[in-house]
Write a structure and sequence with these properties.
The structure is a single chain. The chain is an alpha+beta fold and about 70 residues long. The protein has helices spanning about 25-40, 60-70, and strands at about 1-10, 10-20, 45-55. The chain is built from 2 helices and 3 strands, in the order ββαβα. It has a 3-stranded mixed beta sheet with strand order 1-2-3, with helices on one face. Helix 1 (about 25-40) packs parallel to helix 2 (about 60-70). The longest helix is centred in the middle third of the chain and has 16 residues, at about 25-40. The mean pLDDT is about 80.
């Protein structure tokens, strides 16, 4: 499950995840990260404190999205 907050107008976004994350959930997160980058969101914080488990097979798309953000 995702929740998101934009605490101020200076382009900072907090994405929180909780529970068990499937490969599809991680692919969804990767798409959200790419979308935020495309909209000019400069800083994104991903809060994983409430994640119990994640499917390691989804980590590749998440790593690719992080690399895309760094390059943008």
């Amino acid at each position: 499950m995702f929740w998101a907050a934009q605490p101020d107008e200076r382009r900072i976004c907090l994405l929180g995840l909780e529970g068990s994350l499937s490969g599809d959930d991680l692919a969804n997160l990767a798409e959200r990260l790419r979308g935020l980058s495309a909209r000019g969101m400069v800083r994104v914080v991903v809060d994983l404190r409430s994640v119990d488990h994640w499917d390691f097979r989804g980590l590749r798309c998440l790593a690719d999205a992080a690399r895309f953000r760094r390059e943008a």
